[in-house]
Specification:
Helices cover about 40% and strands about 15% of the residues. The protein has 13 helices and 14 strands. A hairpin with a 2-residue loop joins strand 3 and strand 4. Helix 1 crosses helix 13 and helix 7 packs across helix 12.
Length: about 375
C-alpha cells in the first residue's frame, strides 16, 4: 500500500508533537508492509547530507516558506500534487491547518486520511486570520476527508457536536515507549541539577504552555533546598514571548536545557522530582505520556485534554480564566511536601505497535473501498 504523508515539518529529531508521532508511527507501518513516503520541509532539515530514507520510511524534501502560518499550507499543497503525480493510494495529512488542502486532494481523486491532533485555533500565538485558516482546515477535514483519526475523546466529541461527523472517525491515541531508567547523571549534573531535586517541564516556548507562569510560580513559592526548575525546549521561531520567557527563566535561576532529545532528555526524565505541564491548550501531549512512562509524579492543568487521561485527582490543578499562579503554587507545594514516590500509570492505550495496527486498519478499509469502487465503474 503506497502512502504519502504531509502536514508536518519532518523526521527524525525535529521538535514537535506531530513530528514525534510520525517518527514513531511510520517505521512501524513500513514493517507492516506499507510503502511510506514522508514529505519534509527543507528549512527544518539539519542533516548533512540530508537523509533520503530513515528506518524504511522514504523522505522527500520540499521547499517551503519560513513565514509562520504560511509554511504548512504551501508545503501541503505541494505535497498533494506530489501524491497525485506519484499515484499514492492514501494521502495522510496531519493537523487541521494543512487540512485546508483536503478539497484540492479530493478533486484530484486522492483518498485522504486526516489526523486531527487538536484544535490549534485555540493556541494564543495565532492572530484572527491564522485562526480562520485553522478553523477552515478543521471544517474541510470534517466535510471531505475520507477518514479522520482523532487522538483523544475530546476531539472526537468536537467533530460530532460541531460538524455532526461520526462516520469514518477513528479514535487512535498518541503513543509512548516504556523506557529503562537512565543510570548516568553526568548530563544533569553538568546543568547544575541534583538527581531527585528538580521540577521538569518539557515543550515548545509558546504562550499556551504557560511556562512563564511556571517560572513565576517557582520564583514565588518556597522550594525545598537545592530544588530548581528545569525546562527542556525552545521556540520554533524566535518571538517576543519566547525571548521574554528565556530571560525571565534565566534571571530566576531556572535551568534552560534547550531542545534536546536522546540520552540527555532520557536523563532529565529519569531523575526528575516532579513533572509539570500547566498548559491552557493541548491535544494529547507526548511530554505528559513520556513523564508517565518514566513513572514520575506529574502535575497538569485540568483542561479537557489532560482530564481525558484520567490521572489521579492530586495530579491536577485548576486552570481558570484568571491568574493560574496561586493555584499552581498551592498544587506544587502539596506535591513537594510529600516524600518522593514512583507512580504507576495504565499505559496500555498508548502502545505504539497497537496504534500502528489500528492505523493500518484505517488504511486497509479505505483501500478495500477504493478497489470496490474501481470494480463497479
Amino acid at each position: 500500500m503506497k502512502i504519502t504523508v504531509t502536514g508536518l515539518r519532518g523526521i527524525p529529531g525535529i521538535q514537535g508533537g506531530i513530528e514525534t508521532h510520525c517518527e514513531e508511527l511510520y517505521p512501524r507501518l513500513v514493517k507492516l508492509g506499507c510503502d511510506v513516503t514522508l514529505l519534509r520541509r527543507k528549512p527544518f532539515i539539519r542533516e548533512t547530507p540530508p537523509f533520503t530514507s530513515w528506518k524504511g520510511v522514504k523522505l522527500k524534501d520540499m521547499n517551503a516558506p519560513t513565514r509562520m502560518g504560511v509554511e504548512a499550507l504551501v508545503h501541503t499543497l505541494k505535497g498533494v500534487w506530489h501524491a497525485f503525480r506519484t499515484r499514492a493510494e492514501i494521502l495522510h495529512i496531519h493537523a487541521i491547518g494543512p487540512s485546508v488542502a483536503v478539497p484540492f486532494a479530493r478533486l484530484l481523486g486522492l483518498r485522504v486520511v486526516v489526523t486531527h491532533h487538536g484544535p490549534d485555533y485555540n493556541r494564543l500565538k495565532w492572530g484572527p486570520f491564522a485562526r480562520f485558516i485553522l478553523r477552515t482546515g478543521e471544517r474541510f477535514a470534517a466535510w471531505w476527508a475520507d477518514d479522520i483519526i482523532v487522538i483523544s475523546t475530546v476531539i472526537r466529541d468536537l467533530l460530532r457536536d460541531r460538524y455532526g461527523r461520526t462516520a469514518g472517525v477513528h479514535l487512535i491515541y498518541n503513543g509512548v515507549n516504556r523506557p529503562e531508567p537512565a543510570s548516568s547523571t553526568d548530563y544533569i549534573r553538568s546543568l547544575g541539577l541534583t538527581p531527585g531535586k528538580y521540577i521538569l517541564a518539557v515543550g515548545r516556548f509558546v504562550e499556551e504552555k504557560n511556562f512563564d507562569k511556571l517560572v513565576r510560580a517557582c520564583a514565588t513559592m518556597s522550594l525545598p533546598e537545592d530544588c530548581r526548575l528545569a525546562i527542556a525546549g525552545a521556540a520554533d521561531h524566535p518571538t517576543p514571548y519566547s525571548d521574554a520567557l528565556a530571560k525571565r527563566a534565566t534571571d530566576s535561576g531556572a535551568v534552560l536545557a534547550g531542545m534536546i532529545k536522546g540520552a540527555s532528555l532520557h536523563e532529565l526524565y529519569t531523575h526528575a522530582r516532579l513533572f509539570v505541564l500547566p498548559s491552557s491548550h493541548e491535544g494529547l501531549p507526548f511530554t505528559l505520556l513520556e513523564a508517565m512512562s518514566y513513572r514520575l509524579d506529574v502535575l497538569v492543568s485540568d483542561i479537557p485534554a489532560h482530564s481525558a487521561v484520567n490521572l489521579p485527582p492530586d495530579c491536577y490543578f485548576h486552570c481558570g480564566e484568571g491568574d493560574i499562579v496561586p493555584a499552581l503554587c498551592k498544587a506544587m507545594e502539596a506535591k513537594l511536601s510529600n516524600p518522593p514516590a514512583t507512580r504507576e500509570y495504565d499505559l496500555s492505550p498508548y502502545d505504539w505497535d497497537t496504534i500502528a495496527r489500528q492505523t493500518l486498519d484505517v488504511y486497509s478499509t479505505r483501500s478495500e473501498m477504493a478497489s470496490l469502487e474501481m470494480r463497479n465503474k
